[in-house]
Design brief:
The protein is α/β, with parallel strands linked by helices. About 45% of the residues lie in helices and about 15% in strands. The strands form four sheets. The chain has a ten-stranded mixed β-sheet with strand order 8-7-16-15-14-9-13-12-10-11. Strands 3-4-6-5 form a four-stranded antiparallel β-sheet. About 40% of the residues are buried. The structure holds adenosine-5'-triphosphate. Keywords: ATP-binding, Nucleotide-binding.
């Protein structure tokens, strides 16, 4: 029995607790006294007590032996039962309330307490000794393994790098996926990079499995080196985004994935921008969602997303919070705070960001001087704005007028808003010179990710991670795997989590009441463009499940002074004449073969089929969009077998430079208007032209 003290109700008896030496003895003696007095008063035969005591001694002995207690403890407990029973028998016969009886009972109590304490100490000492012995055994085995590893690697480093190191420690990773060797470099001015640059040869010499590496980095001082050796390939496996959606803060970093030792790697974005490079199919879209998940969980971040490819990166984060009319439902906030899918909306967003940055600079002077800092103190009351721009690097590199305007605004935000808490995450299909050649990006975006997914083309890791050695694309030939480097953590292999659509929905719901609101000062500077971002007209495209295609938008806008509202416009080649020619040829070819649409002025051959605006070939006639027509031709040509976005994009890449994302947008639109039918699910999903769709009549 023990007591716990409660602040307002006083001590509470805890009947479930075990006995200590004092409470045990007290319990035993008071028990004996109670039995003796009531037994004597009721005329109970004293012999019964003796029988009960003997049974108790036997029972306790059995359980003590079962619990593997020491012989001394077993003996003490049995003796306590017998002595207690003996006293009770005697006291019942002679009268329990005499001085002699009570005195002897008190003496027995003290004796029992002392004996119990002594045996308890003995028991604890025995237990500690057993634990220590087990630990010594494990340590002996471990240190034998470590000694063997140390010896092997001293040899290997000597053989491969010609450097004789002295290993000071080998730390086995708790995840069981590798170890780190801490070694002293030989005297004579040898530096760690003599070993770092031989990473690939060391890995081969150690016969490490694919995807595992031996990478050397700086040790605690310049005469020491740390060699991280991965022995289990965590890059190959699909690791799902952790289901703990607890709150995060920008200041403590946002987890973006796993290192090869299964440690989380975090991006610290208070001052840094990020650049995520990944060719199509490398898992870039998935990584964007992982990034958005982290921002949604943060209590001091508002996420603004620009995705000119039908807003697809941001939509899953908005949809769960939209009601049936497409407006944000009461009480539910989307996982992103603003989503732009057109050049126009993106321009409004970036202009607002610039106004906020400039206004914050003035309005928060006092606050910053009180906090003695030149960085705006970001918190849930003054949140940081993270602008995630999918394929933003391509906007920076693009030469069309609208994209150039956006590019200027993006660079202005990056240039002026660091201290005022607005940073960007740009993604890119390739680490092109136009992106990494930009000083602003090189200087401000030091959180870098390269998703390789087995792609070697256009992957210049040396440019993206200057100063790092031994990084090879073929070390991470898996989807969602690649390299990540931040100012805090040197570039090395990493794996992004796989995030599933249902997780996105769950995170939107779980974080809905956690998002900060834009501070009033910033909101005022952002003005109505920000306040009315969820307005019906501005979000109509979200209700339609996809952004309006270029065709529709252009038609709605009446082709006003060449305003480019869509990413599709980027598909135009530099030479409009040859493109026109190509478009005409395609039209003729396809119309001749399939009679897709009637010529203006001719009776339609498909009266039952209302023309789908902007999505059949006749609607495209004035579109100057050869790439889109070529894609449709490919879809038709694929027949009942169908085809996919990647295959179409590959076929168009050379001639039109079309991205897979763009093709995905077209396929989506064609599926929605019935031009194409999607068959199969997951990786087996294919698109079939409606003429070849299962159940379609051949004449159709
Ligand atoms: N972290 C990951 N772990 C495991 N598999 C992944 C991961 N990320 C992506 N994948 C797989 O790769 C496929 C393609 O991913 P994703 O759509 O993100 O690629 P992408 O690079 O954005 O391609 P695209 O630009 O063509 O859309 C996914 O359907 C999934 O099966």
């Amino acid at each position: 029995m023990s007591t716990t003290t409660q602040a307002d109700t006083g001590p509470v008896w805890d009947w479930a607790a075990g006995h200590g030496p004092v409470t045990g003895a007290l319990s035993a003696t008071t028990g004996c006294l109670a039995v003796a007095t009531t037994g004597a008063a009721a005329g109970m035969p004293p012999g019964w007590v003796l029988a009960v005591g003997a049974a108790g001694a036997i029972g306790h002995t059995v359980t003590s032996i079962r619990d593997r207690l020491a012989a001394r403890t077993v003996g003490m407990r049995a003796a306590s039962w017998l002595v207690g029973a003996g006293w009770t028998t005697w006291a019942m016969a002679t009268g329990p309330l005499s001085w002699a009886a009570l005195g002897s009972l008190a003496t027995i109590g003290v004796g029992m307490g002392a004996a119990a304490r002594a045996t308890l100490l003995h028991e604890e000492a025995r237990e500690l000794e057993a634990i220590a012995a087990a630990e010594r055994q494990v340590a002996r085995e471990l240190s034998a393994e470590r000694r063997q590893i140390a010896a092997e690697w001293v040899d290997r480093i000597q053989r491969v790098c010609g450097v004789t190191v002295r290993v000071l420690a080998v730390e086995m990773w708790p995840t069981g996926t590798g170890f780190t060797i801490d070694a002293e470099l030989p005297p004579g001015g040898i530096t760690y990079d003599r070993i770092a640059r031989e990473s690939a040869r060391l890995s081969a010499d150690a016969r490490l499995p694919h995807g595992c590496t031996a990478t050397a980095s700086q040790g605690i001082d310049q005469g020491r080196v740390l060699v991280d050796v991965t022995t289990v390939n965590v890059l190959a496996a699909e690791v799902t985004y952790p289901s703990d959606y607890g709150p995060l803060s920008l200041h403590s970093g946002i987890p973006w994935g796993l290192r090869t030792n299964a440690d989380e790697i975090r991006a610290y974005l208070r001052e840094q921008c990020a650049l995520v490079v990944g060719p199509t199919g490398s898992g870039k879209t998935n990584m964007v969602h992982t990034i958005l998940a982290g921002f949604a969980r943060a209590t001091d971040v508002l996420t603004w997303v620009i995705d000119l490819n039908a807003g697809s990166a941001g939509l899953p984060w908005v949809r769960p919070a939209l009601d049936s009319s497409g407006q944000t439902a009461d009480g539910m906030r989307p996982g992103v705070d603003w989503l732009a899918a057109s050049h126009e909306e993106a321009a409004l967003m970036l202009d607002a960001a610039v106004r906020i940055a400039k206004h914050r600079k003035m309005a928060y002077q006092d606050l910053m001087s009180k906090a003695n800092t030149d960085l705006l103190p970001i918190s849930d009351r003054i949140p940081q704005i993270m602008i995630v721009i999918d394929e933003g690097a391509e906007i920076l590199a693009s030469s069309d007028r609208e994209s150039r305007k956006l590019a200027e605004k993006i660079l202005e935000v990056i240039r002026i808003a660091r201290a005022m808490g607005i940073r960007t995450v740009l993604t890119a299909l390739g680490a092109t010179g136009a992106v990494l050649g930009n000083l602003m990006i090189r200087r401000e975006a030091k959180v870098r990710v390269a998703l390789t997914g087995g792609e070697t083309e256009g992957m210049d890791l040396g440019k993206q991670f200057p100063g790092s050695r031994g990084l090879r694309v073929d070390q991470a030939p898996y989807k969602g795997a690649g390299f990540m480097g931040t100012p805090e953590s040197p570039a090395a292999l990493f794996k992004s989590w796989r995030i599933l659509p249902n997780q996105i929905r769950d995170i939107v719901a779980a974080t809905s009441d956690r998002h900060p609101t834009l501070d009033a000062t910033s909101a005022k500077a952002a003005g109505p463009d920000y306040a009315r971002r969820w307005d019906h007209v501005r979000t109509a495209w979200m209700r339609d499940h996809a952004a309006p295609s270029a065709t529709e938008q252009d038609r709605q806008q009446g082709h006003t002074d060449g305003l480019n509202l869509s990413a599709l416009r980027e598909e135009r080649s530099a030479d409009p004449l040859s493109e026109d020619e190509l478009a005409r040829k395609f039209r003729e070819q396809i119309d001749a073969q399939f009679a897709t649409a009637s010529e203006p002025g001719h009776p339609t051959r498909e009266p039952e089929q209302p023309p789908a605006p902007g999505l059949n070939l006749s609607a495209l006639r004035n579109e100057d969009n050869a790439a889109r027509q070529a894609a449709l031709a490919l879809l038709l040509a694929a027949g009942p077998e169908g085809t996919g976005a990647s295959a179409i994009a590959r076929a168009l890449a050379d001639e039109h430079g079309t991205t897979r994302q763009t093709v995905v947008g077209w396929l989506k639109a064609w599926t929605e208007d019935g031009t194409a039918v999607r068959v199969g699910t997951g990786t087996k999903a294919r698109y079939v032209h409606r003429r070849h769709a299962p159940g379609a009549s051949p004449e159709e």
